[in-house]
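INTERNAL AUDIT FORM
Audit reference: QA-55
Scope: verify that the stored structure record matches its stored sequence.
Auditor: D.O.
Record contents follow.
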Amino acid sequence: MADQEEEDLRMALRMSMQHSPPEPKRSKPRENVAVTSIDSSEESPEIKARRLQRELMAAAAERRMMMGKNTGSISTLERPVGLNVSDNAVPVVIEDKRVSTGPGSEKVETLGYGRLLSHDEANQLFSIIFGGGVSRDILAQWTNQGIRFSPDPETSMGLVQHEGGPCGVLAAIQAFVLKNLLFSPDKFGWQDPGSTRSSKSEWDVFSCLTEDGKTRALVRSIGEILSLCGSNRRVVIATLNVLGHENKSSKDGPGGERIIRVNECTSPASAFKKLEAMVPEFQSRMGAMLFLISALLSRGLDSIQTDRDDPSLPLVTAPFGHASQEIVNLLLCGQAVPNVFDGRMDFGGGMFLKGIPVNVEVGFLTLLESLNFCKVGHYLKYPKYPIWVVGSESHYTVLFALDTSVQDENELEVRESQIRKAFDAQDQSGGGGFISVEGFHQVLKETNINLPPEKLDYLCNTGFIVRSEFWQVLLDLDKSLGGLKDSTGLMGKKVFDIYHFNGIAKSVVNGTQLGEIPVQRPRLTKLRVSVPPRWTPEEFIADMAATSVSTEKDAVVEVSKPEPCQHAPLVDCIRTRWPRALCNWVGDPPSIV
């Protein structure tokens, strides 16, 4: 019975997408209907709305049975965005005002503000997100996820994820929330974490956040992302209205149909004001979906398709409903490009792939780079703020530091970055790490490297230059000639703390006086990261021997006897940003799944 009702709701939803409103099942025109028990003029608005809803569902069920005779199944091609498949599901329609015809429709004009999407826009939006068809489970994931902070004091700055699927959206919002809380704390009513981290634990720092401050940081973060998607010219905000239901909080079940309106704001002030009023909607179970729709519409559906390499693929990937890299890139850089390298990779003949076009405030790291499946470019790897969305094969989490100094580079690191950037600009292999001889001479010219003739011949004798061989030569080449050889043997060792947040609620043990009680909450892990000097193994051994003779005892311990390091997949991600980094933490290893 429950499955039948679900199918009826789904068909009612499809019928509402038709160009003409469905005709309720009845034998006489509405104006001639004779009601024996209760006159329609005496019905309350709530009863009228429910009666119309039942008639709409009955007509949809009849239409479904007729279609079933011809096709044998129900097509998923026209399923609109946002079907809530929980027990008390209510249809969500992205459509014009014709879905609300009938008595009481004059009230529709005053329910909310903004315009309703056209039929073509609704179909295009659904197709871009979910493709030609989508499973009930994936729809449930995306329409049962609100944007809400964790109630747990230790993770109070984090957004909780209860469903798989929207993690890419939540992680991007989380990264911007942290950016605002950590690096603009005075705007949100709490103390600068940089001034408290020496005297308080990280848990104390985050637990002092107020609900009002977190909400304002969330509103600001959502506004910044949508403005980024709108090229800082406009923000389009999707809102949810319930039609034909006087009291949305009624305990008698759904009494109306949900439709999505869109509001376009061209000034930051108006956008933030509208977003502040929308906080309850973003916190509702449709919150993640409303935010994604807002981001796509802010960019523009045609622009979204132009950004992509293959516009025929859905943005929500099958079979598990994860956010694609295009969604994450849209929220981080404002364009739905599918790749993580810098700029555009041209293959000639009009063929090219699109990557990140500009510097970003919040970056991205991925486990796939450590597995040599891709190469994250400089823009995402070195963002303005020390915050990164971290991607694994099936989940997105967030890595961040409390201090921007973790991004600081010494003289040799600056030089290394300059050479790497020049080399990558000539690398047309898709991150394979080799360039042509012509491209190599251009790198030498741009970076003022004077290679001895024998070294130049050695690198060019195969007709292409491999990055690892070039780097080995640079490590042996003195700085005066443009190389990276450092006679001091202290090539940028650094030690710092970094934090990892996984928003998906998992069972963790919470020790109390009554015993250990498992609770569902996100996880925040503090990692101690030590980045050793960038020596080759031979140089490392030689310099260790030299240090043991000429350096004080404490320095010998620091260099030759580092703390035992721990390993987890997150460490592999960290090493794509800080090569050869050693990590330590207390407790369970940080999880990126």
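Auditor finding: record pair retrieved intact. The chain has 22 helices and 16 strands.
Action required: none
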